[in-house]
Amino acid sequence: MTVPSVVVTARSLAYYSRLQEVTANNLANASTEGFKADRMSAQSFEAHWPEALMRLDLRQGVVRDTHRTLDIALETEGFLVVDTPAGERLTRGGGLEIDSGGYLINRDGHRILGREGALHVAGRELVIEADGTVIVDGARADRLRIETVADPARLEKEGHGRFRATTPTIEVPSARVKQGALEDGNVETLQETVEMIRIQRAYAAGVDAMRTLDVVMTTVTTDVGRF
Predict the structure, then answer these.
(1) What is the pLDDT of residue 9?
(2) What is the pTM of this model?
(3) What span, in angstroms and rounded, lies between the C-alpha atoms of 76 and 152?
(4) Measured in Å, how far apart are the chain's first and last C-alpha atoms?
């Protein structure tokens, strides 16, 4: 019984180590605009140890007013579409800029896409209406592509708030955009901090259990083995 106990304890420690990494990453990105937290839970079928089950938490973050013209927040499901060297990607980050060519870009320098391609917004006045329509100096320029996939939970994170769609994207017909605002990450700092403490205590308990098992095994192989 001792060896299986060691295996179970070791796998439990590996689970809590991974859970700590996920929780720490959530905390580190608590202030990242549009960040979506990862959630990890334990599942066990025939095995006697916890196995990690990952899911993407797509709940809406708090929409915070910035009164900056180039900040936008999505108040519904869906993502902005950006053009990257690796292809089109999805993002909830709405902190935008205008590059030297007059195109609307995100903080990483990737162009924001409208229905007619990259959004050229050179002009004196930029208005982004609630339905995503982009108006420059009183004239309609284009409309933001706000899209999602059939199962958003299957999106793959690529870092910098970007997601890769593994299935075809679809338009979000009733998307709402708020100009002059940003969506904060959907991480509750206090809750994640408490979770981190709980994980550390569980890990420490596992380490103590492993030490106890090590003493038992030593006793069995040395003292009992003499008889």
Answers:
(1) 76
(2) 0.80
(3) 13
(4) 20
